[in-house]
Amino acid sequence: MEVVRCGWSEKDDLYRKYHDEEWGKPVYDDETIFEFLVLESFQAGLSWYTILKKRENFKESFDHFNYQIIAEYAEDKVEELMNNTGIIRNRLKILATINNAQKFQEVQKEFGTFSKYIWNFVGGKPIINHPKTLQDVPATTEISDALAKDLKKRGFKFLGSTVVYAHMQATGMVDDHVVDCHCSNL
């Protein structure tokens, strides 16, 4: 019997594995949430597939997404990253990652965990949308608009509403699996 997935995930095994094992599954631990914030911010203007193919390189290059270490990166580390062909070499995005690691920790101090802060925007549980087709999946919502606005107010960078909505999908705050997908929560 053929497994039915969301159409975007059928590019190759890497995409299928990501779709089946991660996308839309709720994430509550700060470390993984931060990883996706980094990856999504680098994805801005590029395809998610490009980022997914480079994910392991990002992980190695950015100290396994340890936000405490990243928050302390100095210019020499920025230059090292700018010379790293295994990642997206964009100075503004690298600097934004360092900034966002610092802001991430500020939010943790205020709310106890970043997870508690971000999940408050959806009432602590996933929003399950049941789209019939990929065309029914929005690029942004009122919630992603509000979250992006709040993140910006807190000093985060490269996290506009479209990037934030993609993050919400990746971390299961929103479940946008199409109704006939085997991962759908119908």
UniProtKB/TrEMBL annotation:
<dbReference type="InterPro" id="IPR052891">
    <property type="entry name" value="DNA-3mA_glycosylase"/>
</dbReference>
<feature type="binding site">
    <location>
        <position position="19"/>
    </location>
    <ligand>
        <name>Zn(2+)</name>
    </ligand>
</feature>
<dbReference type="GO" id="GO:0008725">
    <property type="term" value="F:DNA-3-methyladenine glycosylase activity"/>
</dbReference>
<keyword id="KW-0227">DNA damage</keyword>
<dbReference type="InterPro" id="IPR004597">
    <property type="entry name" value="Tag"/>
</dbReference>
<dbReference type="Pfam" id="PF03352">
    <property type="entry name" value="Adenine_glyco"/>
</dbReference>
<feature type="binding site">
    <location>
        <position position="177"/>
    </location>
    <ligand>
        <name>Zn(2+)</name>
    </ligand>
</feature>
<dbReference type="InterPro" id="IPR011257">
    <property type="entry name" value="DNA_glycosylase"/>
</dbReference>
<feature type="binding site">
    <location>
        <position position="6"/>
    </location>
    <ligand>
        <name>Zn(2+)</name>
    </ligand>
</feature>
<dbReference type="InterPro" id="IPR005019">
    <property type="entry name" value="Adenine_glyco"/>
</dbReference>
<feature type="binding site">
    <location>
        <position position="181"/>
    </location>
    <ligand>
        <name>Zn(2+)</name>
    </ligand>
</feature>
<keyword id="KW-0862">Zinc</keyword>
<dbReference type="GO" id="GO:0046872">
    <property type="term" value="F:metal ion binding"/>
</dbReference>
<protein>
    <recommendedName>
        <fullName>DNA-3-methyladenine glycosylase I</fullName>
        <ecNumber>3.2.2.20</ecNumber>
    </recommendedName>
</protein>
<dbReference type="GO" id="GO:0006284">
    <property type="term" value="P:base-excision repair"/>
</dbReference>
<keyword id="KW-0378">Hydrolase</keyword>
<keyword id="KW-0326">Glycosidase</keyword>
<comment type="function">
    <text>Hydrolysis of the deoxyribose N-glycosidic bond to excise 3-methyladenine from the damaged DNA polymer formed by alkylation lesions.</text>
</comment>
<keyword id="KW-0479">Metal-binding</keyword>
<keyword id="KW-0234">DNA repair</keyword>
